Q: What sequence folds into this?
């Protein structure tokens, strides 16, 4: 079972990126999925989550209105569309699969984690 996140990179403030998370080894169509991030010297924090069917989404206040989470269960993929990026969005972003189909903002509800992809936003 593996989650592979990609799509990170260097972008100027105000720019956009789309992160992708590919799941392999099993289907995650019944699992809630989430994105977390960890900035240098800081603890990992919740960014966004989506329910198994995609009908319910949660966002951290810091990204609400700028980021959009989505999923394609047929492709076993989850995405994080990031717009209006700010330097404070700089972090390693991790995708994760929850133990249930519900959304959760708590990292302890997630049992599978990807390796992370680095997003750097320059001012």
A:
């Amino acid at each position: 079972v593996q989650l592979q996140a990609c799509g990170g990179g260097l972008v100027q403030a105000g720019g956009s990126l789309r992160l992708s998370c590919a799941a392999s080894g099993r289907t995650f169509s019944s699992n809630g999925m989430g994105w977390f991030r960890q900035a240098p010297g800081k603890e990992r924090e919740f960014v966004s989550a989506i329910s198994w069917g995609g009908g319910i989404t949660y966002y951290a206040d810091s990204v609400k209105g700028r980021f959009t989470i989505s999923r394609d269960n047929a492709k076993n993929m989850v995405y994080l569309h990031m717009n209006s990026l700010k330097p404070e969005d700089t972090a390693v972003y991790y995708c994760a699969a929850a133990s249930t189909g519900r959304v959760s903002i708590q990292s302890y509800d997630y049992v599978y984690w990807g390796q992370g992809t680095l997003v750097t936003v320059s001012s």
Summary: The longest strand covers residues 17-24. DSSP finds no helices and eleven strands in the chain. The two ends are 37 Å apart (CA to CA).
